[in-house]
Amino acid sequence: MIAMTDSIYWVGVNDRETHLFESMLPIPQGVSYNAYMIVDEKVALIDTVKADYNDTYLDKIKSVIGNRDVDYLVINHIEPDHSGCIKSVVEAYPDVKIVGNKKTANFLEGFYGVTENVLIVKESETLNLGKHELTFFMTPMLHWPETMMTYEGSNKTLFSGDAFGGFGALNGGVFDNEVNFSFYEDEMRRYYANIVGRYSDMVQRALNKLSNIEVQTICSTHGIVWRDNPKQVIDLYDKWSKQEGEDGVVIAYGSMYGNTKAIAEQLARAFAELGIKDIKVYDAARTHMSYILSDIWRYNTVLLGSSTYNSKMFPPMESLLSKMENSKLKNKNIGVFGTYSWSGESVDLLQKLTEQCKIQLFEPTIKNIFAPGSETVDNCKALAKNLVAAMK
Ligand code: FEO
After folding, report:
1. Cα of 141 to ligand 1 centre, how many Å?
2. Ligand 1 proximal residues by C-beta, below 6 Å
3. Which family is annotated (predicted)?
């Protein structure tokens, strides 16, 4: 338990055990499940934690309120990493009212069979706890249909659900002025690109809504608590959701025997010769796509290369491309390249994806049979030159 004020507490946990978040995304540095508690005339919990940490969570609550009852459990987001302890809270505090919106109630019944003592709230509705008053803002599809945020007026604190959150367990430092942010920024952007990015339009809608309230502290369900400089994270979310990429290049390739890789190397060199310093080169078979997508989100220029594998793209590139399409990527300048030995579909498939994603494809497309020849160097230079000319 960590006291954030004399009446608001962090009662979250660190997960350093799970390898894959959502059974898919590596979290080598762990993740925190942040939950909060407001102690007033009424006691309110805001979100819970993953079920595996049930005992720790309940112990933290009891360490503050002893034998007092919990009056409300606000569910800003019912994905199980935050709702996993609902049934335990109901068992420990049978009179607790679960606060959510109409869609939350649907999930609550479906996941947990809970239908009683549910308090449905609507947009801007308030709930008085004594000296603290909660106001609820609906933020659907950020990133589930039922997501909402809870604002506590007396401390100007926003409990934001997954929004403004990121990977990385809290290593002692919990608040933004207690940590070196560069690590958390990378892990926040990876979280954003892979989990929230598809819903960037809804992020913009939520930011517009929040612009009408004064926020001094942002309490997400993952990562650090922002109370020194909340504007920093709001600005980052604004940038990421507008998909405003920085000048820089991501080159991702799939190569079976090194020929497509050789083109990737030539392209990287061509960009360096043109003065570009931020160049990230990834073998898609070796680096998890979540890291590649995070850098694709960061920069404005992307080169995608694939050898042809049984008339298709090389499978790791196919996975990356599928994820890119699902993320509704936009505002990127793209070049494609690849090699083949007889049929050569991979580059055509890469081009097709750029059409589906509505991202701009730059010429020349580089497609080599067998090993790249001397003309490939010229093509790489030409493609790099065209892409650099389009940078800011
Ligand atoms: Fe952290 Fe969408 O759950």
Report:
1. 12
2. 77, 79, 81-82, 143, 162, 221-222
3. In the N-terminal section; belongs to the zinc metallo-hydrolase group 3 family.
Backbone phi, then psi, for 170, in 5-degree steps?
-85, 110
> Under CATH, what is the fold of the domain 246-391?
Rossmann fold (3.40.50)
Give the model's pLDDT for residue 105. 97
pLDDT at 174 over 90: yes
Do 391 and 300 touch, CB atoms closer than 8 A? yes
Q: Which atom of ligand 1 is nearest to the CA of 162?
A: 1
Instruction: Count CA within 13 A, CB hemisphere, residue 80.
Output: 9
CA 162 to centroid of ligand 1, rounded, Å: 5
Residue 353: pLDDT band by 50, 70, 90 thresholds? confident
pLDDT band at 367 (very low <50, low <70, confident <90, very high): very high
pLDDT tens digits, residue range 219-264? 999 999 999 999 999 999 999 999 999 999 999 999 999 999 999 9
165: helix, coil or strand? coil
Indicate which residue's Cα is closest to atom 3 of ligand 1. 79
CA 147–ligand 1 middle distance (angstroms): 10
Indicate which atom in ligand 1 lies nearest the CA of residue 33: 1
Which numeric CATH code is attached to 2-241?
3.60.15.10
Single-letter amino acid code for the residue at 49: V
Other beta carbons within 10 angstroms of residue 239's beta carbon come to 15
Protein residue with least CA distance to atom 2, ligand 1: 79
| Segments making up each domain of the chain, as ranges | 2-241, 246-391
